[in-house]
Automatic annotation (TrEMBL):
Function summary: Catalyzes the condensation of carbamoyl phosphate and aspartate to form carbamoyl aspartate and inorganic phosphate, the committed step in the de novo pyrimidine nucleotide biosynthesis pathway.
EC code: 2.1.3.2
Lineage: Bacteria, Bacillati, Actinomycetota, Actinomycetes, Bifidobacteriales
Protein name listed in UniProt: Aspartate carbamoyltransferase
Classification via PROSITE patterns: CARBAMOYLTRANSFERASE
Amino acid sequence: MTLDDLSRHQILELLHKAAYIDAHRREVSHTCDGRVLATLFYEPSTRTRLSFETAMLRLGGKVIGFAGAQLASVTKGESIADTIKTVSNYVDAIAIRHPKEGAALVASRAASVPVINAGDGGHMHPTQTLADLATLQSRFGRITDLTVGLCGDLTFGRTVHSLIETLCRFGNVRFVLISPDELKTPQYVIDRINATPSCSYVEVRDLVSVIGDLDVLYMTRVQKERFFNEDDYLRLRDTYILDEAKLSLAQPHMAVLHPLPRVNEIAVEVDDDPRAAYFEQVKNGMLMRMALESSVIGDELPGYVPLEPK
Ligand code: CP
């Protein structure tokens, strides 16, 4: 599953459902009774894997899987397709993270159960986008009509690619793409903005000169694991560090998002600023995965009234 597989209404429905789940945790706690989710993580993860698993447990379901390819038969040479065909016999849905772009698509073609992309290389991270959208919704009451700055590693930052593509589907967003020349946004993502008449973008290098224009500042880590060259990583990793001095130039309502993990790109002193929204994103990630899992493999949420179609 990617967000392109969902209609705009289905995405809004997930946001609505996550808010309901947050307010009715006890009532929804048997929605996935008897269901099993596999989390197949061929790459490290803290938030995504643990929130997929917590979400399933909180809905009454169970989880199997592996955290690290070294523990699976991939080390004996097994293909993704064979692993997925095997695991499809055991579970009701699979969440997969893999270092190769397109791995989730390959998995979904081999699977006989729903497959959820939990991050494929430097390509996409759709369930992180669900967490990001929920955070925008709770901060602004909307996910459109925003000036969204994305800062850091825009080349390899898959969360950035997913977020831009999804915001383009809702429209009316001005993107400010802040990166060094070496880490600019890939052309296929720029093409998506260009194909959306109500969206626009500028590319800049300097954060300070644009921070005052932003409603949202989405900081990202320079993705060390995707660099071919250690020297380039060391040269670029500290290009942007958001601290209180820079934040003092931003509007009072601006929200600072970051998919985490962070390295140096947001100083810890920023955590106490009311504009820091990145730990809200973490909570929203679990709630959105509960909404997703209950929608994909669960029963109806007791008492839940679906969103009216527009
Ligand atoms: N945001 C995110 O994908 O974090 P993890 O790598 O810890 O899962």
